[in-house]
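Hey team,

Sharing the beta-lactamase run so nobody has to redo it. Sequence (351 residues) first:
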Amino acid sequence: MTSLGLRIAALGLALAPASCSAGAQPTPNALVATAPAALSARIAALGASFAGRVGIAVESVDQGWRAGWKADEFYPQQSVSKFMVALTTMNQVDQGRRSLAEPVTLTLADLTVFHQPIRERILGNGGSYTTTVEALLTQAMQKSDNTCNDKLMRLAGGPDAVRDFIAGRRLGAIRFYNGERALQSRIAGLNWNPSYSIGDAFFKARDALPLNRRQALFNRYIDDPYDGAAPSALVNTLARLKRGELLSPASTAKLLTIMSNTSTGKNRLGGGLKPGWTLAHKTGTGQELGGVQAGYNDIGVLTAPNGRSYAVAVMIKKTSTPLIMRMNLMNDVVRAVIAQHEATYSGGLTL
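Structure output:
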């Protein structure tokens, strides 16, 4: 065995080509490895101690190992699904079917529900506002703007185009629903009406429904979410993106740069970072009923000062714990990954 092989064996890594999802290009000289036992144990402890239904997954971008807690179940994505729209859009850019500089006009008919900062620009400009595909993508990912996301989805060809991308790239256990306004309406027991996008009309219509009906639909969504995804599938998608297996090098760099400047959820995964580490991520936050929230998430790619990267997903399906405890969980998962990384590379070993 070579000197490098001996050092790898000392870390418990297998000298074999990394497995990857069908259809993906294998990573040159990649390694298949068993997840470090200490990290697996720490993640299991964090998952078991959390007061709520949570899934956690971590994948080494460079070595291919994966650790997790209940990581193969379906969890509500909520705005994490905007990542799927972004991937679909950037893939169309790579195909020459779309340009980031392409002008796009939004009108009152494009408005959605909940968080949509671009709404003020549309209303303040007489009900019509022209921007670009890149600006829509940036707003959807960095500010989680629902209107920007749904407009991008329709430009890409609608929900079927996103589902086709997921299936075509064999991303695994990831569902995609029909956009934000359709999803949020169905969870609440409503059929979408354009009037819901103005003021508090959506909340009034939702609150007018019988509570027992709302509760039944809310529980049904939690048990089998229309936009569900397995944390294990999401971290593998993130890892494949980081390795350049899903998009061109330029589009990969563009999307990860956009995600590195996300302004939502700074104290979720990002709260556990150490100096020198970076995070490219997307958050997701669901509706609440009776003090219970369905969907509180953050997924992203952590990159160490030495360039090694890890895909991480923490997805809370159902909980009533205070926000600070949810953020602490996410912080602790990141700290566990960093601690494992530092233990692995403290001797200066570079694989």
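The first helix runs from residue 3 to 10.

Ping me if you want the raw files.
A.
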